[in-house]
Amino acid sequence: MTAQTNTWTGRRQLGDVEVSALGLGCWAIGGPFSDTEGLPLGWGEVDDDESVRAVRRALDAGVTFFDTADVYGAGHSEEVLGRALAGRRDEVVIATKWGNLFDPDTKVLHGNDASPAYVRRALEASLRRLRTDHVDLYQLHPQPSIEAAAPLVEACEKLVEEGLIRGYGWSVDDPERAAVFAAGAHGVAVQHELSVLHDDPEMLAMCDRYDIASVNRTPLAMGLLGRRTGGRPAAGADIRTAAPEWLRFFHDGVPTPEWAARVDAVRDILTSDGRTLAQGALAWIWARSPRTIPIPGFRNVAQAEENAGAIEHGPLRAEQLTEIATVLA
Q1: pLDDT at residue 104 above 50?
Q2: Which of 26, 32, 296, 314 has an alpha carbon 20 to 30 Å from 307's alpha carbon atom?
Q3: For residue range 274-293, what is the model confidence (pLDDT) as tens digits?
Q4: Catalytic residue among 72, 138, 168, 210
Q5: Full domain range(s) for residue 264
Q6: What is the rounded distance in angstroms from the CA atom of residue 276 to the CA atom of residue 247?
């Protein structure tokens, strides 16, 4: 494991545009939505006015990259983000995702459509909600086979030609799948899980091979590397209260003992040099590769400010990265 040695600028490259090294993930500000069985897929109730203030505060603090998806809050996240960025579109880079089917009235996810025919319809709906004429990064959200996903590259290239998107990628944790989009002429990124609790050297190597950005979801392990503890359980319409199998960090709204113990083992290293735990976790990601762009979630101004404050501290030092690897091994 090697740490980033480049001079820290607080910036990253995403295709042909430069963005802040930190993005903000807008899943949580979409508010509640659920699957067909009524299980929560959002992060609970939100205050839209607070969400708008948080986005604008982050932008004022230097964050220029915002990632959402059409399905978050059954379209509501895109609407809130569009409202927050009104009048400032030229200052930001927007990423969203497509492929899930949902009812905006009932706020229920009821399937997916990864066909080439659906791409344009999904994008046009996202553009309306985001109040923009283009998306900078358009990402496939479902997980079809490589064979099924391959024709989507040509569909995305047509959208690039028309100026409706600047680049595309896949939100996926399989390097072979990610490479399908990375190999495209305007394949510029993969979105995948990466955190101090979940390293992914194979995906980072794939990003190096194709010269694309690594957009990192779950950088704070769904709040485990932030403020969420056994004393502050998730409640209500929060996905962590009925965590699906892939959301392994929580059970019944609280961190599982084994994952909480791993956080405790590295807490002192991550919070050194004046960082909060969340800021240390983001610093670890930046130290892993000069391609990484973590996108922590947020639901209020304070969380947006704390995340943005990590940029000032920059990446962990190489010896800290090594020490963490030793401890977690």
Answers
A1: yes
A2: 32
A3: 999 999 999 999 999 999 99
A4: 72
A5: 11-328
A6: 23
Specify the number of domains making up the chain.
1
Rounded Cα distance between 229 and 44, Å, is 17
User: In which region does residue 272 sit, left (phi positive, over 0), alpha (psi from -120 to 50) or beta (all else)?
Assistant: beta
Residue 119 is assigned to a structural domain of this protein? yes
Asked if residue 1 is part of any domain, the answer here is no
Instruction: Return d(Cα 176, Cα 120) in angstroms, integer.
Output: 25
Handedness of CA 65, 242, 99, 87 (dihedral sign): negative
The residue to which tokens 């979630």 are assigned:
297
In a domain, 245, yes or no: yes
Backbone angles phi, psi at 288, to 5 degrees: -75, -35
Spatial strand order in the sheet of 187-193? 23-25, 65-67, 93-98, 135-140, 165-171, 187-193, 213-217, 292-294
CATH of residue 248: 3.20.20.100
Q: How far apart are CA 161 and CA 125, in angstroms?
A: 19
Q: What's the predicted TM-score (pTM) here?
A: 0.96
List pLDDT tens digits, range 168-181. Answer: 999 999 999 999 99
Please tell me what DSSP assigns to residue 97.
Answer: E
Q: Are 119 and 165 in contact (CB under 8 A)?
A: no
Give the three-class secondary structure for 146: helix
Helices 48-60 & 76-84 angle (0-180, nearest 10): 50
Alpha helices in the chain (DSSP H): 48-60, 76-84, 116-130, 146-161, 175-182, 201-210, 257-270, 277-288, 301-313, 318-328
**Cα dist from 302 to 51, 73, 94, 193, 298, whole Å:** 11, 22, 22, 24, 9
Residue 33's Cβ-count burial label (10 Å; 0-12, 13-18, 19+) is buried
- What does 105-123 look like in DSSP terms, one character per residue? TTTEEEEE---HHHHHHHH
Residue 2 located in a structural domain: no
Annotated active-site residue 72? The verdict is yes
